[in-house]
Amino acid sequence: MNILFISSEAEPFAKSGGLGDVIGSLPGELNKLGADARVMLPLYPKIREIYEDQLTLLCECTVPLSWRTQYCGIYTLKHEGVTLYFLDNEQYFKRDAYYGYYDDGERFAFFSKAALEVLPLLDFQAEILHCSEWQTALVPVFLKTLYRGNSAYDRLRTVFTIHNIEYQGKFDPAILQDVLGISEGERGVLDYSGAVNFMKGAIVTCDRLTTVSSTYAEEITFPFYGKGLENIIKENSYKLHGILNGIDTKLHNPSKDPCITVKYSKNSIDKKIENKRALQAELGLNADDEIPIIAMIGRLTEHKGIDLVISVFKEIMKEKIQFVLLGTGEKQYEDFFNEMAGKYLGRVSVTTSFSAERASRIYGGADLFLMPSVSEPCGLAQMIALRYGTIPVVRETGGLKDSIEPFDPGSETGNGITFQSVNAHDMLGAIQRAIALYWDKEIWNKIINNGMNTDFSWKASSKQYIRLYKEMLK
């Protein structure tokens, strides 16, 4: 079974969010199950800079993109048992950032077209093309339009995964023929609400549609979550599957993490206190072994539930807690939390930048991890937190609902504390319940043990993907 992941990101080569984590982990797990899964990425400048000695040039070719004929170099290397291909075109990819340019539509139209053009040139005969997000959404679109009837491509099957339906790849209608080279007669494949919508096109043309949790697969059929595509999702629900993401449990492992002060495991959880002390010292918090530390790590945006936190922040700080935030985002959110750090000296720490090393130390030193997301397709941070024995307080949405089971004191089952509605005081109530449980050390240690025993590896999810691929190839 030969699977080619076509993606704009894959850890450790290129990452701006959860997509990079997934594509960096899943292919290797599939290979352990007997598949031959490979990855195709744009050759960004940092990849060339860091991996120059390992990259091998396979060949060079030209790629037709409407009236343009563009150069494409194909490089390869092997990383942790996974073969990767990198498509080179400096006009499109020699940029300081992955996204955010006026010609993003053209850049990733080229990448999608090039991915198909180079397939016959590879030392690999793909059977399934697995694409993700709007950046590679044109692969199934091109396959069903421009390559229809081409015998070299007839046997290919496509999977398209939605990681976040909010980012759809919407562009001016003029792009259809001028950039994509798709005829006016095929406009209906991509046209939606007066724009060319890359994601809509992929939903319609792919053979199987997946998203990153079963709850999110249900949610996006409703207007609140579907971001305008809910009707298209409903029309294509017969091919929709929700498969929860996993995490790299070797990378996120407190017994081996070089970034934390003292390594520990579920069998030596008493050592976690040393990381708490070190975190308090690093962040300028008052030294206090007993006080619970509530942490947030992530983007400061509306759909992350930041407004809920702001609404009741003063009430939260009336509790005997310390609060730690690491992340960047919208200016009004950054300004608010920076102001709170100044107001609650020694109790609130705010870092409006991102550091993976500091994130590890926060996971290792905090007691509670707050994720009040309005929408969360999957979420990985709550899984990482539990690996470190830091208990999540989450809203029951998307992957948060699928991965965090509310703790039941009666049966002593569950690995976190949850709340249901998009309501600041419901969130506050969940935080207060969590704090009450924290002060009962016997119960708290039970929750920690439950959490650290939860399997968030890719084992179960990779088996689900294998079953999906096999079904497609029947």
Structural descriptors:
single chain; 474 residues; alpha/beta; Rossmann fold; 21 helices; 18 strands; Glycogen synthase GlgA; transferase
Q: Topology, pairings included?
A:
Elements: E1 2-6, H1 18-32, E2 36-42, H2 45-51, E3 56-65, E4 68-79, E5 82-88, H3 90-93, H4 104-117, E6 128-132, H5 138-144, E7 157-162, E8 170-171, H6 175-178, H7 187-190, E9 191-192, E10 195-197, H8 198-205, E11 208-211, H9 214-219, H10 223-226, H11 230-235, E12 240-242, H12 272-283, E13 293-297, H13 306-311, H14 313-317, E14 322-326, H15 331-343, E15 348-351, H16 356-365, E16 368-371, H17 381-387, E17 391-395, H18 398-403, E18 417-419, H19 424-438, H20 441-452, H21 459-472
Parallel strand pairs: 1-2, 1-6, 2-5, 6-7, 7-11, 11-12, 13-14, 13-16, 14-15, 16-17, 17-18
Antiparallel strand pairs: 3-4, 4-5, 8-10, 9-10
Summarize the structure.
The protein contains 21 helices and 18 strands.
Structural account:
The protein is an alpha/beta fold. The protein folds into two domains: 2-246 and 459-472, Rossmann fold, CATH 3.40.50; 266-452, Rossmann fold. Helices cover 38% and strands 19% of the residues. It has 21 helices and 18 strands. Strands 3-4-5-2-1-6-7-11-12 form a nine-stranded mixed β-sheet, sandwiched between helices. Helix 15 (331-343) links the parallel strand 14 (322-326) and strand 15. The radius of gyration is 23 Å and the shape is globular. The N and C termini lie close together (12 Å). The mean pLDDT is 97.
Q: What shape does the CA trace take?
A: globular
Largest sheet: 9 strands, mixed
Structural class of the helix and strand makeup? alpha/beta
CATH class of the largest domain: Alpha Beta
Q: What fold name goes in the CATH topology slot of the largest domain?
A: Rossmann fold
On the 0 to 100 scale, the average pLDDT is: 97
State the total count of DSSP E strands: 18
CATH homology-level superfamily of the largest domain: Glycogen Phosphorylase B
Uncertain runs: none
Treating each run of at least 4 consecutive H or I residues as one helix, how many helices? 21
Computed CA radius of gyration, to the nearest angstrom:
23 Å
Beta-strand fraction estimate? 15-25%
Q: Percent range for helical residues?
A: 25-40%
Number of domains: 2
The CATH architecture of the largest domain can be given as: 3-Layer(aba) Sandwich
- Main-sheet strand order equals 3-4-5-2-1-6-7-11-12
Protein name: Glycogen synthase GlgA
Keywords: Glycosyltransferase, Transferase
EC number: 2.4.1.21
